[in-house]
Specification:
The protein has 304 residues and is α/β, with parallel strands linked by helices. It contains 11 helices and 5 strands, in the order αααβαβαβααβαααβα.
């Protein structure tokens, strides 16, 4: 491969990387005219982040996340990152950007469904414990045991006694995790009432997003103040020195992504792990080998 062809190939790979991000951004471009007007009105307060700056910083941070991943694996670290917050606050988008270029065997996402009848009879934390990381792993909880002080409490799925027991237990549970060698980082994504309404409207009017709307999401609109009270008590009773809460302002999705990823990188003392130089071995050619011709029906039709 010549220098020019190698440079062309690298440029193509970078464009593919940008295309991946643009594919995830495309939902923001599919807003109806009515919702686009609302969006412009709601976001007129602050200057929009320049797209070049956003992409440059995102790709730079994702490169750092790869270094972090290598460090976690090489040093046998155990990392848990919790993502909580309002519905439609942007947690999923941040998680996607964090894991986009990482090895899923090292950095995995845990998003548990509603508990089964059997799980409801277990010790509350029991269903989460099997998902905790072993050495060399990083686990991102897309919602976590804080369901108990949030949705379960507000929606009446947990009694006041169960909530009180949770508040009494969770600080010591998290201290146990930290004492076991786990680094525990907790993020709460916050958005305004108006911004959540806008994002719900976007989901209702966008067929590609309607799957994101659950009955619990819709119910949360009516119970905004109840969720606020639940959040305030959660902070008051679970913001411990060993595992403090960090609030991410999520009204601006792109800024929230960069701010959260940058903060996560700052909370871990990772260093670049030296790797041996990789050499691609020469292809072995066997003059007696003849490749078989496979039947046409095995191939996916090339329509594009």
């Amino acid at each position: 491969m010549t220098d020019d062809s190698a440079r062309t190939w690298v440029e193509a790979e970078w464009l593919d990387s940008l295309d991946e991000e643009l594919e995830m951004e495309i939902d923001d471009l599919l807003i109806s005219k009515e919702l686009a007007f609302i969006s412009r009105h709601e976001h007129a307060q602050g200057a929009e982040l320049d797209r070049k700056v956003y992409f440059h910083e995102l790709l730079r941070m994702q490169a750092e996340l790869v270094k972090l991943q290598d460090w976690v694996q090489a040093e046998g670290k155990k990392v848990v990152v919790i993502f909580e917050g309002r519905d439609a606050a942007g947690k999923g988008g941040v998680i996607k950007r964090i894991t986009q270029r990482l090895n899923p065997r090292v950095a995995r996402v845990v998003a548990l469904p509603a508990p089964s009848e059997r799980e409801k009879s277990q010790w509350y934390f029991q269903r989460y414990v099997p998902h905790l990381p072993a050495a060399g792993e990083m686990v991102l909880f897309d919602r976590s045991w804080y369901n108990r002080s949030g949705v379960e409490r507000v929606m009446g799925f947990a009694s006041e006694d169960q909530v009180e027991e949770f508040f009494n237990d969770v600080p010591e549970f998290e201290r146990m995790l930290v004492r076991s060698g786990i680094t525990l980082i907790k993020y709460w994504f916050s958005i305004t009432d108006q911004e959540q309404q806008l994002r719900f409207l976007m989901r209702i009017h966008d067929p590609l997003k309607q799957w994101k709307l659950s009955p619990m999401d819709l119910e949360s609109r009516k119970r905004w103040e109840d969720y606020t009270k639940a959040k305030e008590e959660t902070f008051e009773r679970t913001n411990i020195p060993e595992a403090p809460w960090f609030i991410v302002e999520g009204n601006d999705k792109k800024r929230a992504r960069l701010n959260c990823i940058g903060h996560l990188l700052s909370k871990l003392p990772y260093a670049e792990v030296p790797h041996e130089t990789i050499h691609l071995p020469e292809r072995v050619f066997n003059p007696d080998y003849e490749r078989k011709v496979l039947p046409d029906e095995l191939y996916v039709p090339e329509r594009f």
